[in-house]
Design brief:
- The protein is of the alpha+beta class and 197 residues long.
- It has one domain.
- The chain is built from seven helices and four strands; from the N terminus they run ααββαααββαα.
- The strands form two sheets. The chain has a two-stranded antiparallel ribbon. Strands 3-4 form a two-stranded parallel ribbon.
- A hairpin with a 5-residue loop joins strand 1 and strand 2.
- The longest helix is centred in the first third of the chain and has 19 residues.
Length: 197
């Protein structure tokens, strides 16, 4: 049922998100050049890696040693606008269509975090990751890692179609209000360094 709901909602909204992706894709191409998409290996269902798609929002600027500059220095004005409206996540719908993600579930995180989770935190991987989730409508990036994982595991234990619809509605309201986009003192979210981070 959950997979059918994902496909139904994507098909229903297809004209809107395809048009938005075309407009944003052209804007990113003109502003940042190629590639338009940012791809990154993330952890999916049962810990399997997959390539997450997002719109590119940062430059490739680096320091004299060749190390990338901090996110806040590489984030462009267009990129900031796309992020604050969560439109950078739209290409993730392609991941949903491929079955790598769901519309609702724990957000897919970096593969490098896999050995850092406690056994309880790792339970977030028993469901498909989502474009949005319980953690996102309960603080988003403004939450601590521990709070986010607690919300993720709660979702795993309480997931249902009605809960998914509730999360999708709350996500829409969060996007309109543009709340919780980044953690305090960070342009996005600080890295996870271990169980108690």
């Amino acid at each position: 049922m959950k997979r059918l709901l994902d496909l139904f909602l994507i098909a229903l909204s297809c004209p809107a998100w395809v048009l938005l992706m075309l407009i944003i894709g052209v804007s990113v191409r003109l502003s940042l050049g190629s590639p338009v998409f940012f791809t990154q290996e993330r952890t999916g269902l049962n810990g399997r890696p997959f390539k997450l798609l997002k719109f590119r929002t940062m430059t490739d600027a680096s320091d004299a040693q060749g190390n990338p500059l901090p996110d806040s220095d590489r984030l462009t004005a267009l990129g900031r606008a796309i992020r604050t409206t969560s439109l950078d996540e739209l290409p993730g719908l392609l991941n949903v269509l491929k079955g790598e993600m769901s519309l609702v579930g724990p957000r897919p995180l970096l593969v490098e975090y896999l050995p850092l989770y406690s056994r309880e935190q790792a339970r977030r991987h028993v469901v498909r990751p989502g474009l949005t989730g319980w953690a996102q409508v309960n603080g988003r990036n403004a939450s601590t890692w521990e709070e986010r994982f607690t919300h993720d595991v709660w979702y795993v234990d309480n997931r249902s179609i009605s809960l998914d619809l509730r999360i999708l509605l709350k996500t829409f309201l969060f996007v309109i209000k543009r709340t919780g986009i980044s953690a305090e003192g960070s342009a996005t979210m600080p890295k996870f360094h271990g169980r108690g981070s």
